[in-house]
Amino acid sequence: MHPDTHPAIWGGEACRAVVTGVAVVAVMFAICHLPRWFLALGHGVGLALANHLLGLTLMGITYGIVYAVTGNLWLVAFIHATMNSPPVLVAMSVPPELHFVVGVVEYATIIAVVYLATRVTKADGTVLAGFQRGAAF
C-alpha cells in the first residue's frame, strides 16, 4: 500500500494508536523470543538478556514500521526470514560487542529503503516524475 492510503502514519488522530500498537507488538515480539534464549541457548538472566530484549524490541519496531508504511505482511515475513538466515545470505563475522550496533544499522537501513521505495512510487506503482531514468532534476 502507498503511504497516502495510510494517513495515520503521516499524522492525524489515529497516529497515536498506530505508534502504540507498534510499540506493544514490538515488546510482545521480544517476549516471544524468550523461550529460545533460556531453553535452546541455555542463557540466564543478566545484562546480556536486557541487551538481547532491547535488540529484539527494536527489531519488532522495525517490522511494525515496515508494515505500517507498506501494509504488506509478506514483506515483513520476508525481512524476518532474511534476518533469521544471515549466514546463508552474507558470510561475515561480527564481534559480539558490536552485534547491537550492527543490528541498529540494519534496522535503520531497512526502514530507509522501505520508506524511500514507497515515496518514489505512486499508489498505482508508477514512478514519480524526477525519479525516472534520464530525468533532469
From TrEMBL:
It is an enzyme of class 3 (hydrolase). It holds the Pfam family Rce1-like. Its EC number is 3.4.-.-. Residues 19-84 form the CAAX prenyl protease 2/Lysostaphin resistance protein A-like domain. It comes from the Archaea. GO terms for molecular function: endopeptidase activity. The keyword Hydrolase applies. The chain crosses the membrane at residues 20-41, 53-78, 98-117. InterPro entries: Rce1/LyrA-like_dom. Keywords: Hydrolase, Membrane, Protease, Transmembrane, Transmembrane helix. GO terms for biological process: CAAX-box protein maturation; proteolysis. This is CPBP family glutamic-type intramembrane protease. It comes from Haloarcula terrestris.
